[in-house]
Amino acid sequence: MIVAYISGASKDEESVGVGEPIAVGVSSEVLQWELMLREEMRKQQLPEEYLPLVMALIMQESGGHGPDVMQSSESAGLPVNTLRPAESIYYGIKHFKSVLAMAGVKNASDMENIKLMLQSYNFGTGFINYAKQNGGGYTKELAIQFSRLQASKLGWPSYGDIDYVEHVLRYYTVANEIGGLSGGAANPIAKKATEIALQQQGKPYIWGATGPLGFDCSGLVIYAFTMAGHPINGRPTTSTMLSGTAQFKAIQKNQLKVGDLILFKLTSARVSHVGIYLGDGKMVNAETDQAPLGQQIRTVQVFGNSYWEPRIVGYSRVQ
């Protein structure tokens, strides 16, 4: 089971505030450590707002599987996977808090410094000094350079994970980091699902896939709403989304709000495509596997567009 986790709220809560940190797509195996994480964060005086980021980090490090759930044995000067869960969380939170301070992270929405902090969690705090000496903050180029430098010094074939920032942040977002939501949302879940769908841009289109590594058009809808706390039952097709079921209600264009679905007939006589409405005549959709990777899942203009608008066949709302 994979869910979305909002700091300071129950998992069933339907609202998300501006600037709210969210752990997206974390597994139930990660969530099982929530109480232990909260207690350790309280003892070490790490603010609760960082809990979603800690969960995202654990999702990358171990997927929540023990014993060393935060992969912090090396931080304690021990061989890999030596620590048991409670010890792993103790040393992991201690290291997390230390690197957070060294990187100058101001709050859970300070994404630029969070990137520096995350790469330093993986590389070690020497990366912070290296970054400050070479421009002041995190860049992917600096991560690559530092990795090569350390590997050469140690005589290793490689050093650390140069993609660590991207790997962790695929499980983490901040509500006000996502722009472009114009007008009111159909409901809080629809707004949250739209924000989650936008975060999938840059991932590949894969036919039949429902995430988290890739999606087809209906798979993106299923994933986004499921991660927002509203599971979509079964594997509905675009035709089902249009015709209406207990979970999909047909609506008119003048009822369209952020988070509603737009259905299309593209190259055949049947309903074959769906996107999630963003407002301002735009949608986010898993579009094609024929485009460059960054354009396979993307935001496009629908209304006023000579390709998209004539192919619309209807609108639907997830309920």
Automatic annotation (TrEMBL):
Database matches in InterPro entries: CwlT-like_lysozyme (IPR047194), Lysozyme-like_dom_sf (IPR023346), NLP_P60_dom (IPR000064), Papain-like_cys_pep_sf (IPR038765), Peptidase_C40 (IPR051202)
Gene3D superfamilies to which the protein is assigned, alphabetical: 1.10.530.10, endopeptidase domain like (from Nostoc punctiforme)
Annotated ranges, domain NlpC/P60: 187-319
GO biological processes: proteolysis
GO molecular function per UniProt: cysteine-type peptidase activity
Keyword Protease included in the entry's annotation: yes
Annotated keywords: Hydrolase, Protease, Thiol protease
Pfam families registered for this protein in UniProt: Lysozyme_like, NLPC_P60
SUPFAM superfamilies: Cysteine proteinases (SSF54001), Lysozyme-like (SSF53955)
Sequence similarity: Belongs to the peptidase C40 family.
Name used for this protein in its record: NlpC/P60 domain-containing protein
